[in-house]
Amino acid sequence: MLKQFFILCSGADKDLLEGCSEGEQTKYVGIGATVFFTAVMAFLASSYALFTVFDSIYPAIAFGIVWSLLIFNLDRFIVSTIRKRDKIGSEFLQATPRIILAVIIAIVISKPLEIKIFEKEINTVLLKEKNAMALNNKKEVANYFKSDLDKNKAEIDKLKSEIINKEKEVNTLYETYITEAEGTAGTKKLGKGPVFKEKIAKHDLAKKELDTLQKTNLVKIAEMEKNTKTLQTDLDKKVTETQPIIDGFDGLMARINALDKLPWLPSFFIMLLFLAIETSPIIAKLLSPKGEYDYKLEDLETALKATIEQDKYQRTLLVKTSATMHDKVYGDIADDKQLYDLQRKNATDLLELQSNNFVEKQKKTL
Question: pTM higher than 0.70, yes or no?
Answer without folding.
Answer: no
